[in-house]
Amino acid sequence: MSAQVLTYIFVGLTFGLYIAIAIWSRSGSTKDFYVAGGHVHPLANGAATAADWMSAASYLSMAGIIAFEGADGARYLMGWTGGYVLLALCLAPYLRKFAKFTVPDFVGDRYYSQTARLVAVLCVVFISFTYIAGQMRGVGIVFSRFLEVDIDMGVGIGMGIVFFYAVLGGMKGITYTQVAQYCVLIFAYLVPAIYISLMLTNVPLPMLGFGSTVNDGSGIFLLEKLDGLTQELGMAAFTEGKKSTVDMFFITAALMAGTAGLPHVIVRFFTVPSVRDARISAGYALVFIALLYTTAPAVAAFARLNIIDALNETEYQALPEWFSKWEDSGLLAWVDKNEDGKLQYRGGAALEPAKPIFSGERGVSGERLVSNEVGASANELYIDRDIIVLAHPEIAQLPNWVVALVAAGGLAAALSTAAGLLLVISSAISHDLLKNTLARNLTETQELRWARVSAAVAILIAGLFGIYPPGFVAEVVAFAFGLAAASFFPVILLGIFSTRMNKEAAISGMLSGLVLTTSYIVYFKFMAPELNHAEHWWFGISPEGIGTLGMLLNFAVALVVMRVTPPPPEAVVDMVRAIRIPKQAA
């Protein structure tokens, strides 16, 4: 059976499962819609948290970045996993004890201010829509290749599926759907990794095969072979980092603090019955997350090695069928610069700007001609880094059922996070903006109706972000983490651990961090992209890492303002102290 037919079957079965779960667990109250009734088992919540947190960036893009950037890609591994530990240990149990539905709920009540609540709602919307752009792009990529539809159509199909189980089921439906999605995505990620590890090293565990010798009898370690090949082709060694220490530090710190401030992850800890269960579910989630994150570097190294072996110095007419199919998607391109009919994979850019635009004509060697400006380097191959995980099973010539499984896993990763983000946006608008601010007399039925309407509108906007994304998946997600680090992390941390922190400090800190980070990203990514190079960045900090500077500004402004403004009311001080008292259940 062909890979496309199997993909239709696998994707159809998994989508049917998600919809069935949404119907079975549909929400009947606002508590069900916002926090799944607050009675999710820690094991289920751990799996749902892992699926919610491991987005298309983790599944599709992270291994692709490491494959192309080598050691520099470790910033994502360190930042995202370190940030989850920070969230689980320092924030989640205390926020669960506060027992509110949303992060703006915490900010509004902790800082006894509707203005603070509205600023938090603004931050939630900024962060969530930035994050969701990457998820919808991931959905479009999977559909465009494996179901052979246009990327825009793929985004539309994904929107329809998310609309059904997010709007109908709310957090209750999303939680149990995410449990199923975690099972799908982790199985789909590990199976091809194990296959390829055995093929290259005879070691079944990819995280161990990554550091083993290749099985060609040479006795050379896999990474040693990869370093040699990349250097021979004029590229940096896979294990050699090229980014400056300053930028690596700032990006990693932004990803860590951003993880701890992500509203759609924080809200997951409100769905369990007690503080103790919040801690247990955080532990389960860390184990579930580690399965993918310890495998990703191995997938990246295996893919880079297989790409070089399969494509370099190969005649175009002899390339496998998958190559032409990925060309059709616009995410892979070959330009025969020396007109020898062979693909030359070398160091340097093949095309400028990055994504090729096909002209509809073919060159003398049979290649699809592109209208982009061709780069001056010897490299003739353009590969979008977001396709590495999806294309690798085909590159390695794995069975068609594995290819289809990987596609289903990619959709599970993107849709699980998209659903969580949409719910956060919906909750912020219906619960925080309407129920607690603009329309306090809403009944529960009216609030639930507005929550569903908000989710539907958010899905439509998210679809536009997926069709017109501001960058590749992990880059867009990194921007969202930077915004979360610059806005939420300081006010949540100080709100828990400082009784002196007041509303004036929280509002001024959030706004200053958000404005600085947003302005920097918008300027370098949209207003002056030609200046987006290290020599023009402040202190050598890229837009991916500016969230750390925004966070430091947030902390500085908040600490200064709280010293020159009145302290919070005594009732708020007592509430903060009560949050930190370690009781078994709250």
Overview of this structure, please?
With 586 residues, the chain is mainly alpha-helical. The protein has a domain at 3-303 and 398-469: Hydantoin permease. 68% of the residues lie in helices and 4% in strands. The longest helix has 51 residues, at 151-201. The model has no long low-confidence stretch (mean pLDDT 81).
Helix and strand layout, with pairings?
Layout: H1 3-24, H2 30-35, H3 42-53, H4 56-69, H5 74-98, H6 103-110, H7 114-146, H8 151-201, H9 206-209, H10 222-232, H11 245-260, H12 263-266, H13 275-293, H14 296-311, E1 314-315, H15 321-328, E2 332-334, E3 342-343, E4 351-352, E5 358-362, E6 368-370, E7 373-374, E8 381-383, H16 388-395, H17 400-438, H18 444-467, H19 473-497, H20 503-527, H21 546-564, H22 570-579
Antiparallel strand pairs: 1-3, 2-8, 4-7, 5-6
Helix pairs in contact: 1-8, 1-17, 3-8, 3-13, 4-14, 4-17, 4-19, 5-11, 5-13, 6-7, 7-8, 7-17, 7-18, 7-19, 7-20, 8-17, 8-18, 10-14, 11-19, 11-21, 14-16, 16-17, 17-18, 19-20, 19-21, 20-21
Characteristics:
586 residues; two-stranded antiparallel ribbon; Hydantoin permease; mainly alpha; globular
Tell how many strands the DSSP assignment holds. 8
Radius of gyration: 24 Å
Strand order of the largest sheet: 1-3
Uncertain ranges: none
Query: What can be said about the biggest beta sheet?
Result: 2 strands, antiparallel
Short description, anyone?
The chain is mainly alpha-helical and 586 residues long. It has helices at residues 3-24, 30-35, 42-53, 56-69, 74-98, 103-110, 114-146, 151-201, 206-209, 222-232, 245-260, 263-266, 275-293, 296-311, 321-328, 388-395, 400-438, 444-467, 473-497, 503-527, 546-564, 570-579, and strands spanning 314-315, 332-334, 342-343, 351-352, 358-362, 368-370, 373-374, 381-383. The protein is globular.
